[in-house]
Amino acid sequence: MPREGSPWRGLGTVILKELSDHLTSARMRVLEWLVVLTALAALYGAIQSVRDTTAQDPFLFLRLFTTAHQPLPSFVAFLSFLVPLMAIGLGFDAVNGEHSRRTLSRILSQPIYRDALLFGKFIAALATLAISLICLWLLVIGLGLFLLGVPPGGEEMLRSLVFLGVTIVYAGVWLALAMLFSTVFRSAATAALVSLGVWLFLTIIWPPLAQGIAQALFAHSDEATMLIGGQVLARLSPSTLFGEVVLAILHPATRSLGPVYLDQLQGAVMGAPLPFGESLLLAWPQIVGMIAAAILLFVAGYVAFQRQEVRA
Amino acid sequence: MSPTSRLFASFIAVALLTAPAFADDTASKDVKGIYLLTDFPAVTVQPGTTSTISLQLKNYAHAPERMTLSVDGVPQGWTATLLGGGQPVEAAMPSTDGSVSIDLRLDIPKTAQIGAKTLTVKAQSGDTSVALPLTVTLAKDLPAKLSLQPQLPELRGSSHSSFEYTMTVKNDSGKKLLVSLAAQAPANFDTSFTEAYGTQEINAIPVDAGKSKDVKLKVTPPDGVDAGNYTVTAKVAGGGASATTAVKLDVTGEPKLSLSGREGLLSARATAGQEASVPVIVTNNGTAPAENVKLSGNAPSGWKVKFQPDTIARIAPNQHQQVQALLTPPAKAIAGDYVTTLDAAAHGNTGTANFRVTVTTSTMWGIVGAGIIGAALLIMVGAVARFGRR
Questions:
Q1: What confidence tens digit (pLDDT) does each residue in B312-322 have?
Q2: Cβ pair B332:A113 closer than 8 A
Q3: For testing contact with chain B, the best of A107, A257, A266, A282 (most B CBs within 10 A)
Q4: ipTM of the predicted structure?
Q5: Are the beta carbons of B102 and B89 closer than 8 angstroms?
Q6: Given CB 3.0 to 4.6 Å as the disulfide criterion, which of A98, B46, B50, B192 pairs with A104?
Q7: Number of domains, chain B
Q8: Residue B100 to residue B120: CA distance in whole angstroms
């Protein structure tokens, strides 16, 4: 039966309900504590390192995000690992949970369209992730002010805000993927396992595998083609894209994310930071890729959900 | 006195009038007897000093004999001592065809009157007696006298060159002098003295009596001094005497070029693949006009550097001219800072400036990215419209 009227009707109700469910659920609390504790450990290590070594750095605050203090990885490395986990944790039973609780037909008998239900679930989960990431970001800035005693500069704030936005987008990609699987698989356990499997594959196995594939594909080409081919393949993984964006935004001296010919570096002033706009332009394709991937994955989940039989 | 001794005495007089070498060489064959000799039988000394006169007692073909020595005619207050081997002696005994060296030491009081005195040194034995009259003239010392002569008194050069004058210091006085060296130059001119063939700077140089020495005066004008003639006066002084001489510098002017951006800015912005126009100001800080100033640039490979115009006909001293530098980074340039060197050259004088060029990349791909996101949203809207259902 075709929809009549706005697909947004009832969206606000769904968002508020889902948001309150998420924020009070034990699952969310466990995930938040996991993220906060590990991030704090990484941040503390970074502050120790920053105090010892890089007092003269013009981008001292950005070092808080990227400095690793052995044996702990850096704050950014923690986030790139834990943000997908949080997103999958929130999204893997979005639709099939309603099925198994047999509440879906009851909700849809209310004046709420399927569109609004799925949109609402996605927006509420993304808002939950955004709230915890913003809290985490404020925690970093606050602790940095408190322990370093140096106020951050305007460009540092801009760069870290862009980093915050990119992290939310990155969470959105994995959330959309998890919701797609929660629609496709009727069992929540299957959806969770498949989501986690895809995440582990794309994050850990795919980058080295992409290099291997490129070497096999471009065996008779020159070195540059092989490098570029490997990079293009590796960029199919959102983790690679996120890593590259972080490199461009949080390391202002980064000039290029791809291979560079030596003659392009002639006369270049090494180590000079790029202006903010240039860094953003450098990372822009990666950011676009992540946003587009999030939208397309969501659309796939949406189409699957719209075509599904709900009266089971 | 016996006839032979008289003959000897007259012979001594002859020998003293000619030369001791004559007595040594020729007299040793025909001359026999004992002689008392000295190189200079008439000397000039100053009151209040001690002077020593060398004497020799020679024996030609005569049996060794003990000769008693004495000095007659010593004026009041003077002390005359005969020394042999460093000790006072009263007699000497020259062997046959041998000689004995004797010194006559005269201690002359300060109060001694100016004038000539004659002392007679005598050597006597039983039948032989020789006498040697010595004339001692008391006189004041010779006054010290110095002269200073430059070899090339006028030099020409630019304000960057150093002017080196070789000068001869001559000591025309009777004793060795320590001559101090000084030079008086216009304000901020740097002067120094060195040895003629050395690099060590010196303030004073010892010059032996009657000798001369070469010294070098090095004058360095201050940077950017006006063109013109300057005079430096060199002065030597020592022992109460002094001498001066004047040397001249003819400093010619020269242009001095410098480059900068407008208001001293040395940075510029350029977009990859597009020409950027950077205003460049060429200034002549020198003392002469710069003619035919050529502008050139040294940029990383792949860059194009042009100037509008690329030659300036003339820049007067303390004037400046503005040109436009047109920089084109290659289309594939990576964003970031690059160093480009711009030069302005005129007659060997070059002004250089390092410009820091910030290359920005085209924002076209940013718009393409926004288009991709828009396409994804369109797909979503299409899906909502196509698949939306109750």
A1: 888 888 888 88
A2: no
A3: A266
A4: 0.79
A5: yes
A6: A98
A7: 3
A8: 18
